[in-house]
Amino acid sequence: MSGEPERVANSAQAALLLDVGLRPLLDLLIQRPRSVGEVAQSLGVSVQRAHYLVGKLERVGVAEVVEVCPRAGRAVKRYRVLSRWFIPYEATGAETLEAFLDGQILPRVERFTHLSVGRFRELDDRWGFWLERGEKGSMLSIGTPRRKGYALFGGDEPFLLNIGGLRLTREQAGELKRRLLDVMEEFQTRDSPENPTYTFALMLVRGEVE
């Protein structure tokens, strides 16, 4: 945990801090100070675009200049984002707490769906749903007429798209959570920038999602 004091976001700051499209930029500047040129190179955008994005953050006080390095012709500024922010629900403009969470979760779910469909199309042109009898009622699953979906989801391909329900005690559900987090922590130690990125999501809540 950083020793820096936390900053409480106002409405203008909250809008940028929670903007999914700005997350790559925030990730850069919250780690260490960077110049506009460094931002442009890291994000793969033009210097003009990087200057515009960093300027948006600076104007509302999310980013600040922490270094000015002399250079022939023009000094180079380096910007950073404070490493600890509290963003009050009330500052987001969301009418309900559900809308507040939706604003962060749904864009990521849409992106996850887009990536999943891309993998589907690599495998087959025809997709649909299989409705079948399961152990405790009906079971709906995504697949192809030749059942290639079953190989995709159940085989060794690193792809998983599943929503299920379990009847557990509170203690058992807590154990499930701990095991999932342990697995996630184990594989985070193997994270390497040379490897392709895989997106995962862990969700666990009491109640039924049909």
UniProtKB/TrEMBL annotation:
InterPro entries listed in its UniProt record: ArsR-like_HTH, WH-like_DNA-bd_sf, WH_DNA-bd_sf
SUPFAM superfamilies in the record: Winged helix' DNA-binding domain
Protein name: ArsR family transcriptional regulator
Superkingdom, taxonomy of origin: Bacteria
Protein source organism: Deinococcus aetherius
CDD domains: HTH_ARSR
Gene3D superfamilies attached to this UniProt entry: Winged helix-like DNA-binding domain superfamily/Winged helix DNA-binding domain
